[in-house]
Amino acid sequence: TNEQLALPVGITLDRFIMRNQEAFPFASGELSQLLRDIALAGKIINREINRAGLSDITGQLGSQNVQGETQQKLDVIADIRFIRALKNGGEVCAIISEEATEVILTGNNHAKYIVAIDPLDGSSNIDTNVSIGTIFSVYRRRSEIGTEPTEEDFLQRGNKQVASGYLLYGSSTILVYTTGKGVNGFTYDYSLGEFFLSHPQIQISQDGEIYSCNEGYKSDFSDAVQHYLEECKQKRFSSRYIGSLVADFHRNLLKGGIYMYPATRKTPNGKLRLLYECFPLAFIIEQAGGKASDGKQRILDIFPTDLHQRSAFYVGSGKMVDTVENYINN
Ligand code: P6P
């Protein structure tokens, strides 16, 4: 059944996952364990981020810290931590990451899940202390259990995702995810080392008055998108663009709004990556009652041909995505 679980605010993530698993009649617990592994990696990265200013790991790759150790950038550390957590958790047979060109094999060839991840989105934001995020997407593998996974395992439509979510390392650290039964947000209490349900059954408003895009590229946008921007300004909508996808997405999810990254001269196919940015956020927004489009089609219907392919991205309140699509297609 598709009813959303009404669980009390304040329940721990662990208990929520357990209750949620009961709602899946044939669940064997592997996805539950995988979600716990992701939450663990998020806690570790959260600690690294909070220490970054102190132990000077936000600098360029290769810089030395006070102990004379070779430094690694936070996004490299995040990548290493997620891969290690997923490998050790044993539920994932392969990973693709924004930080790696090729498929990463975990050696768990009997595991049935694969994960696509952007371990820490937007390094320019890391160095300037802007809120940053991790985005993840979970699929069942297409290849036989026991065989070595291949790139083909990852070339599935977005609507085949089993789960997706993000961690936002901001004024507080929040984990937001869906397994297809609604969207829930968990806020991290670092003094207890626990995530607690703080945003149960998130639903985005059908319409909104916030638009997020980099207007510096306005002259590159199609006439249609420029006309939509004019409409937003005539209606005195608020322009909010943090330049950090997870932060912009999360604000719009809670307050209503649209995030747009259209094709530009510099990025003719859009800038954002389909498999580990657009697909996971599109799954979330649809589960929260919103929409995600590349301007012509539903993001989740796209069949990817390359692990790192990019896409134009319009995501948020359904009526706002419909409006900009109408400009583009008429
Ligand atoms: P621009 C950060 O580099 C990122 O991937 C997203 O987090 C962000 O929304 C976007 O790119 C910002 O891109 O071209 O506006 O700087």
Automatic annotation (TrEMBL):
Residues holding Mg(2+) 2: D118, D121, E277
Amino-acid positions noted as binding substrate in the UniProt annotation, renumbered to this chain: D121, G122, S123, S124, N214, Y241, K271
Pathway: Carbohydrate biosynthesis; Calvin cycle
Record flagged with keyword Transferase: no
Chief site of localization: cytoplasm
Domain Fructose-1-6-bisphosphatase class I N-terminal: 11-200
EC number(s) reported in the record: 3.1.3.11
Subcellular location: Cytoplasm
One Pfam family here: FBPase_C
Positions with a binding annotation for Mg(2+) 1: E98, D118, L120
Keywords of the record: Carbohydrate metabolism, Cytoplasm, Hydrolase, Magnesium, Metal-binding
Co-factor(s): Mg(2+)
UniProt enzyme class: hydrolase
Stretches assigned to the Fructose-1-6-bisphosphatase class 1 C-terminal domain: 204-328
Reaction catalysis annotation: beta-D-fructose 1,6-bisphosphate + H2O = beta-D-fructose 6-phosphate + phosphate
UniProt keyword Membrane, yes or no: no
GO terms, molecular function: fructose 1,6-bisphosphate 1-phosphatase activity; magnesium ion binding
Quaternary structure, from the entry: Homotetramer.
Annotated family: Belongs to the FBPase class 1 family.
Protein name: Fructose-1,6-bisphosphatase class 1
Source organism of this protein record: Pseudarcicella hirudinis
Gene: fbp
